[in-house]
Amino acid sequence: MLSKREKDLIREIWTKLIPVAEDIGSDALTRMFATFPGTKTYFSHLDISPRSAHLLFHGKKIVLAIAEGAQDIDQLAVSLAPLQTLHAYQLRIDPTNFKLFSHCMLVALAAHMGDDFTPVAHAAIDKYLSAFAAVLAEKYR
After folding, report:
1. Could you tell me the CA-to-CA distances from 33 to 23, 50, 78 in Å, in that order?
2. What is the rounded distance in angstroms from the CA atom of residue 41 to the CA atom of residue 43?
3. What's the pLDDT tens digit per position in 21-80?
4. What are phi and psi of 68, to 5 degrees?
5. Which of 12, 26, 37, 87 is most enclosed, with most CB atoms within 10 A?
6. Rounded to the nearest 5 degrees, what angle is found at the Cα of 133, between the Cα atoms of 129 and 138?
């Protein structure tokens, strides 16, 4: 699905994004809640107002998980196994939300990365986020 060059590019991009993980993650979550209000139901116990401590913390966790998975994309299913179980059996997140979040993450990245969000980077990140969402949803089958 991903060429060696795309994997290298994805790894490079996500490594650069780690220092701003809170900003990107909370931006993507804020976008998701505004665009797809039904996704808020899974966060009813948190303050999900823009830039809240809860949103910054959870956004950072998500971005760090995505960045960690990018380090060895070929082992994505192995590295995401604990998150698969958590989201499927404990949190019972609708797997459609992973795709919705991926879309919002792409928009947040485009806004944050500016000119570095080239068509090649966009395509590679889109493929990676699609794979990430698909792996998270595997436990639902």
Report:
1. 15, 10, 29
2. 5
3. 999 999 999 999 999 999 998 888 889 899 999 999 999 999 999 999 999 999 888 888
4. -65, -45
5. 26
6. 145
Q: Cα separation of 47 and 39, whole Å? A: 14
User: What is the C-alpha separation between 13 and 20, in angstroms, rounded?
Assistant: 12
Q: CA–CA separation, 16 vs 4, rounded Å?
A: 18
**What's at 97, amino acid-wise?**
N
Residue 21's identity, in one-letter code, is A
pTM metric for this prediction: 0.91
How far apart CA 4 and CA 65 sit, in angstroms, is 21
DSSP for 39-85, please give it: GGGGGTTS--STT-HHHHHHHHHHHHHHHHHHHTGGGHHHHTHHHHH
Cβ(84)–Cβ(139) below 8 Å: yes
Tens-place pLDDT, residues 76-102: 888 888 888 776 667 678 888 889 999
The whole-angstrom separation of Cα 118 and Cα 123 is 9
